[in-house]
Amino acid sequence: MNSRELALVSTAAVLGAAAYAMAIRFLFNPKRDFYRIESTQNGTVVKKSPSQSPFDPSKRKGYLSWDDYFMAIAFLSAQRSKDPNRQVGACLVSEHGIILGIGYNGFPRGCSDDKLPWAKKSETGDPLETKYPYVCHAEVNAILNTNHASAAGQRLYVTMFPCNECAKIIIQSGVSEVIYFVEKRLKQSDTAYIASHRLLSMAGVKVSIAHCFNYSSFFLHLFLPEPSHLWTKLRESDHTQ
């Protein structure tokens, strides 16, 4: 299978999985209302969107926005990751709204997911017994999976803010905007993310927090088992920078 066929199969698999999941949900509960996530002073609440009259000639309300759609693709891609501790997904989108590449964190092609370690720490202190020397991050994979399409001037949706190493590749590839869902900083990795912010800012790459899933949270329920609790947690983490 050549690179073009691989890219087409990869994209088709992601979109097919999303369609399959939606079809299964509809099959078992066809009249299920969509939900909206609303933030209040007392936390986060989940509300049902009102049903639309069959005589209403207007388009359906509460459909996925483009930001929702592309971030949902990133979340879906993350589910392909074999990492037991962290699953990250990314989706590279052209200025015309065309998906150019998708990726998730994992080992390079041809490198066995069963032979290389997934551990975060080594009992012997040997870094080669951890995942870190081997893993390719989601952002890098999304950029490399474009089937030679240019990433220059394009937008990158990613479920977690990129590290400094990914920031370098994002800048060098010409990506113009990074939209991320959450930034989770661990104490030992603070330097990497501070450096990432600094690099992206100096290079003129626009960085935005995704405020999607606020009003069309089908994918939030699909991927996140406790949306209300987790949404509050993620929102809090956005302001701890």
TrEMBL record:
<dbReference type="InterPro" id="IPR015517">
    <property type="entry name" value="dCMP_deaminase-rel"/>
</dbReference>
<dbReference type="InterPro" id="IPR035105">
    <property type="entry name" value="Deoxycytidylate_deaminase_dom"/>
</dbReference>
<protein>
    <recommendedName>
        <fullName>dCMP deaminase</fullName>
        <ecNumber>3.5.4.12</ecNumber>
    </recommendedName>
</protein>
<dbReference type="GO" id="GO:0008270">
    <property type="term" value="F:zinc ion binding"/>
</dbReference>
<dbReference type="GO" id="GO:0004132">
    <property type="term" value="F:dCMP deaminase activity"/>
</dbReference>
<keyword id="KW-0862">Zinc</keyword>
<keyword id="KW-0378">Hydrolase</keyword>
<dbReference type="Pfam" id="PF00383">
    <property type="entry name" value="dCMP_cyt_deam_1"/>
</dbReference>
<dbReference type="InterPro" id="IPR016192">
    <property type="entry name" value="APOBEC/CMP_deaminase_Zn-bd"/>
</dbReference>
<feature type="domain" description="CMP/dCMP-type deaminase">
    <location>
        <begin position="65"/>
        <end position="207"/>
    </location>
</feature>
<dbReference type="InterPro" id="IPR002125">
    <property type="entry name" value="CMP_dCMP_dom"/>
</dbReference>
<keyword id="KW-0545">Nucleotide biosynthesis</keyword>
<comment type="similarity">
    <text>Belongs to the cytidine and deoxycytidylate deaminase family.</text>
</comment>
<keyword id="KW-0479">Metal-binding</keyword>
<dbReference type="InterPro" id="IPR016193">
    <property type="entry name" value="Cytidine_deaminase-like"/>
</dbReference>
<dbReference type="GO" id="GO:0009165">
    <property type="term" value="P:nucleotide biosynthetic process"/>
</dbReference>
<dbReference type="GO" id="GO:0005737">
    <property type="term" value="C:cytoplasm"/>
</dbReference>
